[in-house]
Amino acid sequence: MDSYRTARQYACARFTEKKSEFIGYIKPIETEAEALAFISETADKHSDATHNVYAYINLEGNVVRFSDDGEPQGTAGMPVLEVLNREQLRGVVVVVTRYFGGILLGAGGLVRAYARAAKAALDAAGVAVFSKYRIFKLDCEYSLGSKLKYELPRRDAEIVGLGYTDLVNIVIKVAPENEKSVSDYVADCSGGKVELQLIGEKYCE
User: Fold this and answer.
1) Of 100, 161, 172, 196, whose CB count within 10 A is highest?
2) How far apart are the C-alpha atoms of 32 and 46, rounded to whole Å?
3) Cα radius of gyration (the chain)
4) pLDDT in tens, 2-25
5) d(Cα 125, Cα 100) in Å, to the nearest integer?
6) Residues 110-168: pLDDT tens digits?
């Protein structure tokens, strides 16, 4: 996966439908453990609510889970999940809390209300697109380090770390499509003496 869409930040939104209050919460996550912790935290916060419905799609293994939490099957968790799928989101969890107001909404009304709560929370959070970057380390002489510190950012390589020992230690973040050109440039500047050392990958907005 080279990129994915997710919620930009934590957010919540609320509305009332036929005296029932719906509160949608959304949060970007990376692991299933983060999703479960957020669900538990929200349910504890609203332990007096009638329902705490949830859906999430995490990044690790693309695990998908949802729960109706006592609402009629298919009327709550699935509509929330469908909003996430329709928006092509990954790495996100949504909890919709409902305080029942005494008037039944019917199956169709519940589906619309839970989907509306999820979408309202997403609209409040905004959507962010994260792309995969590769993280490289390179060590060079001080004379070359000064040039690379200036030139690398001009060649689509963001410097994210800088250290000094007997050599200059530079850590850069590079999009996969720019890796070859950056590597070739470093090799040319150093006469083939300096190579990029891959130390990891990271998704960044």
Assistant:
1) 172
2) 21
3) 23
4) 789 999 999 999 999 999 999 999
5) 25
6) 999 999 999 999 999 999 999 989 999 999 999 999 999 999 999 899 999 999 999 99
Sequence-separated (6 or more) residues with CB below 8 Å from residue 27: 7, 10, 38, 92, 93
- Which residues have C-beta within 8 Å of that of residue 135, sequence separation ≥ 6? 160, 171, 172, 173, 174, 198, 199, 200, 201, 202
Q: Read off the DSSP letter of residue 14.
A: E
**21-46 b/e with 16+ CB inside 10 Å = b?**
bbbbbbbbbeebebbbebbeebbeeb
CA atoms within 13 A on the CB side of 133: 18
- CA dihedral for 86, 121, 63, 77, sign (positive or negative): negative
CB atoms within 10 A of CB 88: 10
